[in-house]
Hints:
By secondary structure, the chain is mostly helical. The protein has 31 helices and 8 strands. The protein has helices at residues 10-44, 47-63, 68-93, 100-124, 133-144, 146-149, 162-184, 199-213, 232-244, 248-255, 257-276, 279-291, 303-306, 310-313, 318-339, 345-361, 365-382, 389-409, 423-433, 439-456, 473-491, 499-525, 528-549, 566-586, 588-602, 605-615, 638-650, 677-682, 695-698, 714-725, 729-739; strands at 418-419, 492-493, 619-620, 623-624, 656-659, 741-747, 763-767, 770-774. The strands form 3 sheets. The protein has a 4-stranded mixed sheet with strand order 5-6-8-7. 46% of the residues are buried.
Amino acid sequence: xxxxxxxxxxSSIQTECQKAIRPNRLSLHxxxxxxxxxxxxxxxxxxxxxxxxxxxxxxxLVFYDVSVLDIVAFAAxxxxxxxxxxxxxxxxxxGGKRTLAEEVALGTALGYAIEVLAYIPAxxxxxxLLVIVWPVVTYALFLAVPGLRRHWxxxxxxxxxxxxxxxxxxxxxxxxxxxxxxFYRTFDVARPELWGHSADRTxxxxxxxxxRHHFPPTFPFVAGxxxxxxxxxxxxxAAASWVTGVEPMVLLLRLGxxxxxxxxxxxxxxxxxxxxRSWTGALLAVAGTLFLRTPNLYQGPNWGFTYGGxxxxxxxSPSQTFGALLFAPVVLLTLDLVRRARSGLVKWLLLGIFLxxxxxxxxxxxxxxxxxxxxxxxxxxxxxxxxxWAALAILLMTALCLLFSHLVLFGQVKLGMVFAPLAHxxxxxxxxxxxxxxxxxxxxxxxxxxxxxxxxxxxxxGLASRPGLLTSPGVTLMLxxxxxGLGVVLMFGHxxxxxxxxLMGALPYLTIVAVYGLLLALSRANLPHGTTFAAIVGAGAxxxxxxxxxxxxxxxxxxxxxxxxxxxxxxxxxxxxxxAYLAVSMGWVRAGAVAIVSFMAMSLPVEIYERLAVIxxxxxxxxxxxxxxxxxxxxxxSTALTALRWLRAKSRPDELIATNAHCDWRLEAPCNHVRxxxxxxxxxxxxxxxxxxxxxxxxxxxxxxxxxxxxxxxRRFEANRQAxxxxxxxxxxxxxxxxxxxxxxxxxxxxxxxxxxxxxxPLMFRSSNYSVYRIPGDSRD
Length: 781
């Protein structure tokens, strides 16, 4: 007989309900715990600081007149046209443990190199947009080849400490803020007429326009003059302009250098971590690269000693920034190959790509690398170690690149660089005293200069605490690079102080070695509290000592030139006595560590002072205004820009322009040989505009002399002059027939008395005093 089930009572029903509910409560708890873990994971990962600094950059760009559309277009090209395909290639060819940021930085650097090498043939055949073929082919390969598909996910990355990620984000944010207050506020992209007088900006803008439309390139402001210059960065910006549609001026003055700066700093940190094997060392390497300068014991700026860092040239010299970015992977690969010669062909292929890119990016890095490799080889031979075949092979590759750059890319011209020992010391002396120096004064100033850098890089002495470290290949390579950079500053001269770029290129690597020695000295000395105290004393001395010595520069009337040496002599004597006392009281090891910390800390605040000095330069209407300079010399008329933009829109890239906008025939030296308005804002070649930045324009320069203002081709100069000073059908037709001129850009105020261009050529456009004429007929007839 079947039993009838007994109905459940209230208590049993409650029990069953609790059993049913309990798993749900546990699941909810697990979900909350999982969410908290994910939030914590995001907080300690590098994504949050990366997102924060990216947001900050976007806000700064929008504030300084960059449209959101331009930001999005450029970011998309940067990610999908450079960084992602480059990172895929790095994953497939360059092994080793690294963070995701380091991997992406390496990939972006490789993307820059390949992009430029791809753009050159694309531009040469007249199809510049073919530059996008290389990322498309890369994606296709990594999707189609089974062995390459795994690289879309990548290997497990090294995890950086959260404090390191946030510190790097803050440093990059600082550099962006500094760029904003010193560069963006000065060069207003919404009103370029306010800074059109700037020869450096218009020079780079003109080259960008040239690489957008022509190959092989020439100096667009002197038609037909071969472009013997470091122009690969302009090729990159031209490629980016074609793909994104962003205005070249916006790329040059707002967007283009930002990713280069971030990638460079990450790669410097990566190199620092490789050498020091420390996250602290990596961070200090970046901080030192940015902030470490020669101590300034004067009241007032001493630009001759302290100028020359990433802050000074990130925007001012795009070629230096681009070259430094591409040189960082070269140093990393060289370190790997020198330490482990059997690294596979792919690393050698990567090194070759970067070296070829450096040839046209900034060739000054090639002699620096050559010197570093020579130092490695010499040390290894002297110590009777096995021949460093990897270093010898890289040396040969570097030599071939140097030879190609000199014979082909630069056409055997010297680009203004001359052998002139102590030329930079002479310029510095003139800035400090306003008087010509004697030889003994130059030698004394050079000794002070070397003393200052010895203090800033005093950490190198800490390497002596570990036997054999000073002669290890990695340290020797970087010391050789640094010695070459410093040697060029002391032994060569350039009309634009180009000798300093060699030292700027070497600074990150000397700083890395100094930081390595600092960490070793502190580790051996064991000074947990003394370190902080020594750093505070050193940093404080940077502010107190100039006040105590009371030597203002430039020296005022009646001041003795010997006053320039007094602060450094007294400081050197006091430093020696203090170190001797500390050595007696606490031992040489601890005394040395205290001295290194104090000297390096003393070299840091200089950067703050110099930055504040730049920020203090008056700015009005968005353009830099130099004190005591005539207003009319500091800006380009907005009406001129209107006419130039019309001419860009209505002319073809292969049409040639003649102009008188840079010449005033009433003057003894009538032409401004560094005014480049027309070629910069029309993106067209000009028969004759400014020639001061060309190799032939600088070839007669010697230290103590100005660049010869005379143009080297008197026939062309006179033909251009006659067409505007005494215009006639004959003079204008001569420009068309013999030089291929199609357009005339005329400053009517600078025409000859009673001359009217409209009598010989039809007026096409006028904006106040600026007119555009087109010569009748075809210039190619």
